[in-house]
Amino acid sequence: MERLQKVIARAGIASRRKAEQLITDGKVKVNGEVVRTLGVKVSEEDKIEVNGIPLEREEPVYYLLYKPRGVISSVSDDKGRKTVVDLILENDKRIFPVGRLDYDTSGLLLLTNDGEWANLLMHPRYQIEKTYIAKVKGIPSRAALRDLERGVILEDGPTAPAKAKLVSGNREKNTAIVELTIHEGRNRQVKRMFEKIGHPVVKLKRERFAFLTLDGLNAGDYRPLTPHEVKKLRVLALTGEY
Questions:
Q1: Any residues with CB less than 8 A from the CB of 151 and at least 6 apart, and which?
Q2: Quick one: pLDDT at residue 207?
Q3: Is the model's pTM score more than 0.70?
Q4: Is there a single domain that holds both residue 103 and residue 163?
Q5: What's the domain range around 101?
Q6: 102 catalytic, yes or no?
Q7: How much is the average pLDDT of 99-112?
């Protein structure tokens, strides 16, 4: 038996909080009866409807994908472009990406059908570190890197403290490779941070998500997460430790 709002969240329909709102608003039925009370527990046999649509329960799945450039971080695309969901070949469940990477950004992306788990990992309150490798124009000074570390002011507010390291610089081509670790997830945040210090991104790759890496994978490859990895990510989101 599980709490009704948890079952709704896990199905990917809404976050736990939004699921609670749906229940109190009378939008949820269990076995044909409207349920407005939070904390009600349901079993696998109970029939659940949300906004009149039967809830489809699926076994949760979790994938780590090495997203190539030129692929959309979405479930579908109205322009017919390939999406990250298209790359998970043997899956027959309604998976979706946890967060997103830009069309021209490559790297580590998680996909799942577990809405509650995904919301945990994406919530700004849970400071999960993500590490990027950026090829940028120019060679940032130590002072510029310190600006990234302290946080820069973007149009949607200051960024949180980060970790920045100059990996290499090519004076002949006037480019540099910089490693940047952040725990936020704003739209185009990494690119905007580098633009702010005067070093636009030429190429960007996410190399790490928490303790997960791309080891053993090529662009377009993926693998299921192990149950231990899924649990570690959940614990990390809730406690900050694993």
A1: 158, 159, 160, 161, 162
A2: 98
A3: yes
A4: no
A5: 62-125+211-239
A6: yes
A7: 96
